């Protein structure tokens, strides 16, 4: 494999690895946001149960629900942004994989071409040797 092909493949592999790490980090942040959303849902259920049991807590429930709706909308907005970011990262990773495969394909074709040329030279040398022996 030629030096230029090795360098291109190495650079492309690095780019793919970097994008994979970015995608994993986005997935981690998304899982964290989904966990925050689940915790918020659990908290509101606890507060509703408490409001049923305690009249004073029942009076404060509406104020709690207003704050809860705000926090929930913030987390849902974060999830929307993370989904868009994840989609972009997946597209970038797909493109990087395509580029890497192109470089690998070109390098393989180059290697096969060199092997075929070497075989042709060897065959020509053996043909010339055979002709000299006959003569």
TrEMBL record:
<keyword id="KW-0969">Cilium</keyword>
<protein>
    <submittedName>
        <fullName>Flagellar export protein FliJ</fullName>
    </submittedName>
</protein>
<keyword id="KW-0966">Cell projection</keyword>
<dbReference type="InterPro" id="IPR053716">
    <property type="entry name" value="Flag_assembly_chemotaxis_eff"/>
</dbReference>
<keyword id="KW-0282">Flagellum</keyword>
């Amino acid at each position: 494999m030629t030096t230029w092909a090795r360098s291109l493949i190495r650079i492309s592999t690095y780019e793919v690895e970097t994008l994979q790490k970015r995608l994993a980090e986005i997935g981690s942040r998304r899982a964290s946001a989904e966990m925050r959303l689940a915790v918020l849902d659990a908290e509101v259920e606890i507060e509703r149960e408490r409001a049923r049991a305690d009249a004073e807590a029942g009076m404060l429930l509406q104020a709690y629900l207003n704050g809860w709706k705000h926090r929930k909308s913030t987390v849902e907005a974060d999830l929307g942004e993370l989904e868009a970011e994840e989609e972009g990262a997946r597209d970038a990773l797909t493109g990087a994989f395509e580029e890497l495969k192109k470089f690998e394909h070109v390098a393989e074709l180059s290697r096969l071409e060199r092997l075929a040329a070497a075989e042709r030279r060897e065959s020509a040398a053996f043909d010339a040797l055979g002709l000299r022996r006959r003569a």
